[in-house]
Amino acid sequence: MKMAKKPDKDEYQQHLRLVLMGIAGVGAIGFTIQFVFSVITFGR
């Protein structure tokens, strides 16, 4: 069994960027859904 090694700086930044893009993506989807439904209810 191989021992896990600490990620180097480039690998850490790549993972951090991926995680932040995922969080931003989920937030953007939630914002879009909330915005669309607020426009739909405002149009009534």
What series of H and E elements makes up the topology? H
Main sheet properties: none
Can you count the helices? Answer: 1
Alpha-carbon Rg, integer: 19 Å
Mean pLDDT: 92
Helical content class: over 70%
Q: Which regions have little confidence, pLDDT < 50, spanning 5+ residues?
A: none
What's the end-to-end separation, in Å?
A: 63 Å
Task: Please state roughly what percent of the residues sit in beta strands, choosing from under 5%, 5-15%, 15-25%, 25-35%, 35-45% or over 45%.
Answer: under 5%
Keywords: Membrane, Protein transport, Translocation, Transmembrane, Transmembrane helix, Transport
GO molecular function: protein transmembrane transporter activity
Main location: membrane
GO cellular component, one term: membrane
Name the descriptors:
single chain, 44 residues, mainly alpha, rod-shaped, Translocase_SecE/Sec61-g, protein transmembrane transporter activity, transmembrane
Written overview of the protein:
It is a single-pass membrane protein. Its main location: membrane. It holds the Pfam family SecE. This protein has 44 residues and is an all-alpha fold. The protein is built from 1 helix and no strands. The mean pLDDT is 92.
Chain-wise SSE layout:
Layout: H1 9-42
What's a quick, concise take on this entry?
The protein is mainly alpha-helical. The chain contains one helix and no strands. The chain has one helix at residues 9-42.
